[in-house]
C-alpha cells in the first residue's frame, strides 16, 4: 500500500530484532564481508544479474582503495541504472566510491503501484555481489535515488537503517513505510519549480514528518525543475562522505 506522510515510524531496536522483523517487506539481508578482497575489474561493469533489457551497472573507480564507500543509486520512472550511474561517474572517480545502479524490474520501482515484489530481492543480490568482491567501508554505505528512485531510496533506506548509513533523495514524491530500523541521516533536495513531483509536498509534509520521527534531515531547496543538478549531486556526495 502506498502511503504518504505523516506516518508512524517505529524504530526497531537492533538487539531485539527477531526473525519475524527481519523478514518484513523491504528488508535486505546483504551485508559487507569482513575480509573481502578487490577483484581486478574496474570501470563500468554490467550488473550481470538480469537480462539484456533490464540489468544495471556497477562503476568501480580506477584508483584502488583499501575500502570503498558504496552508493546504491536508483533511477527514476522509465529510467535505467546505466543512465543515472553515468551522471555520477565523475564524482565516483574524484571521491573514490563504488556505484551500484540496478534497473527496476518494471518501468519503475514496485512500491509505486504495488507492495514490495521483485525489486528488493534484485537489489539484495546486487549488493551481495559487490560485497563479496570488493572491500567495503561499512561506515559509508548510502542509498540514493532520483524521482521515483528517491521515493524508493527513502522507503528502503528507512526500512534498512541498520545497513545504510546515509539516505539521499533527489526530488522524492512519497515514503511508503510505517516502520524503521535505525535513524540514518537523510539528505533531500527538491527544486521549487519541479513540474513532476510537488515541491511543497516535500517541504511541508515529507521533511517535517521525518523530523518529527527523529530523523536528522538536511533539506536543500533550489530554484530549478525536476532534475539532479551537478552542483546538488556534488553537495550530496560531499555531505555523505564528510560524515565521520
What structural class results from the helix and strand content?
A: alpha/beta
Could you name the CATH homologous superfamily? Alpha/Beta hydrolase fold, catalytic domain
- The topology string of helices and strands comes to HEEEHHEHEHEEHEH
Query: Helical proportion?
Result: 25-40%
How many domains would you count in the coordinates? 1
Counting DSSP E segments of at least 2 residues, the number of strands comes to: 8
| CATH overall fold name | Rossmann fold
Report the biggest beta sheet as strand number plus sense, adding barrel if it closes.
8 strands, mixed
Mean pLDDT over the full residue set: 89
- Rg from alpha-carbon coordinates: 17 Å
The stretches of 5 or more residues where confidence is low (pLDDT under 50) are: 1-20
Summarize the structure.
This protein is α/β, with parallel strands linked by helices. It has a single domain, classed as Rossmann fold (3-Layer(aba) Sandwich), CATH 3.40.50. It contains 7 helices and 8 strands.
Amino acid at each position: 500500500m502506498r502511503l504518504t506522510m505523516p506516518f508512524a515510524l517505529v524504530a526497531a531496536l537492533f538487539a531485539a530484532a527477531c526473525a519475524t522483523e527481519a523478514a518484513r517487506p523491504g528488508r535486505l539481508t546483504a551485508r559487507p564481508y569482513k575480509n573481502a578482497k578487490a577483484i581486478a575489474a574496474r570501470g563500468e561493469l554490467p550488473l550481470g544479474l538480469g537480462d539484456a533489457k533490464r540489468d544495471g551497472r556497477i562503476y568501480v573507480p580506477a584508483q584502488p582503495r583499501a575500502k570503498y564507500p558504496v552508493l546504491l543509486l536508483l533511477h527514476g520512472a522509465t529510467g535505467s541504472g546505466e543512465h543515472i550511474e553515468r551522471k555520477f561517474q565523475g564524482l565516483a572517480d574524484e571521491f573514490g566510491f563504488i556505484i551500484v545502479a540496478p534497473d527496476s524490474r518494471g518501468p519503475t520501482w514496485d512500491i509505486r503501484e504495488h507492495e514490495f515484489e521483485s525489486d528488493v530481492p534484485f537489489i539484495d543480490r546486487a549488493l551481495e555481489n559487490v560485497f563479496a568482491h570488493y572491500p567495503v567501508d561499512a561506515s559509508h554505505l548510502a542509498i540514493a535515488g532520483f524521482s521515483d528512485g528517491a521515493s524508493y531510496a527513502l522507503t528502503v533506506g528507512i526500512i534498512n537503517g541498520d545497513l545504510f548509513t546515509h539516505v539521499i533523495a533527489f526530488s522524492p514524491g512519497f515514503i511508503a513505510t510505517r516502520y524503521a530500523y535505525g535513524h540514518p541521516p537523510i539528505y533531500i533536495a527538491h527544486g521549487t519549480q519541479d513540474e513532476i513531483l510537488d515541491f511543497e509536498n516535500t517541504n511541508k509534509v515529507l521533511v517535517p514528518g521525518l523530523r518529527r520521527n527523529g530523523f536528522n534531515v538536511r533539506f536543500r531547496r533550489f530554484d530549478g525543475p525536476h532534475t539532479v543538478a551537478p552542483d546538488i549531486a556534488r553537495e550530496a556526495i560531499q555531505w555523505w562522505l564528510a560524515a565521520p
